[in-house]
Amino acid sequence: MHRKNHHWTFLLPLSAASIQGRFDNTVIHWYQMKENKPPERLLFFAAGKTTVESGFQGKKYMVDKVSSRNLCILTINDVSPDDAATYYCAYWDPHLDRFFSTGTKLIVSEKGNSKPENSEILQKEHENQLVYVCLFEKFYPEVARVKWIDEAEKEVTENVVKGDVWKFPNEDKYSVSSWLSVPLENKNKKYVCHLEHESGELLLPTHGKYYILNFLLYLLCLYFLYLMIFYFPVKFQK
Predict the structure, then answer these.
(1) 145: nearest Cα among 99, 189, 193
(2) pLDDT over 90 (residue 220)
(3) What angle do CA 150, 152, 157 make, to 5 degrees?
(4) Which domain holds residue 91?
């Protein structure tokens, strides 16, 4: 989601596996859902033509398809507070199964965005499990996605708990956390906590600076042990 000169662009890829080879012939639907209201179909895109539903301004919306990437792009022009909502793209397959995107929330604000003021990963052993807690504090706006990535650069979906975004009273910035549990025998495996936010992406490795500092401290202890065994005895003998 990008903002430039009062234009918002949504880049929402559809499922390449399910519509590969017939993307150009697929009718794409876009829905708008405002807070405490049911979703409304905003428009549909077929055969290169956009049809906007009555009740919406036709010139305000543009849709493009990028067939090579199975990507459908919605652009909203001249954004106003009334455009604040969550937007979904969808399509129906020949068996009448309906597929919806996860949705993109549009927040209309003059505050801009700010990255987290603090971010960290904590860890604790519990019942033969190693629990990582990933925390991002004080960012704006509140729309954020946190996911865990393994060493193969694949998203981890098992044994993951994603907390809701929250904010403290009398503050206008938000925080979010996520938990990952792994077997204790996997403690040497590396994972990355990945934040996707309007201010940019942020990566926190489980074997980050704290792991490096502990390793350096370990090397320092070995060095002093070496001095105690080999250097100081020779010096005292002289």
Answers:
(1) 193
(2) no
(3) 40
(4) 2-106
Structural domain contains residue 117? no
Round to whole Å and give the CA distance between 137 and 119: 6
Give the C-alpha separation, 47 to 63, whole Å.
Answer: 12
Distance CA 190, CA 156 (A): 12
- 197 and 213 assigned to the same domain: no
Name the residue among 178, 181, 180 with its Cα closest to residue 128: 181
**With 60 as the cut, is the pLDDT of residue 137 above it?**
yes
Strands 49-52 and 61-66 turn out to be unpaired
Q: Is residue 31 part of a domain?
A: yes
Cis peptide leading into 38, omega within 30 of 0?
no
Reported pTM:
0.59
pLDDT in tens, 13-47: 444 334 444 667 788 899 999 989 999 999 998 88
Q: Is 197 exposed, middle or buried (0-12, 13-18, 19+ CB in 10 A)?
A: buried
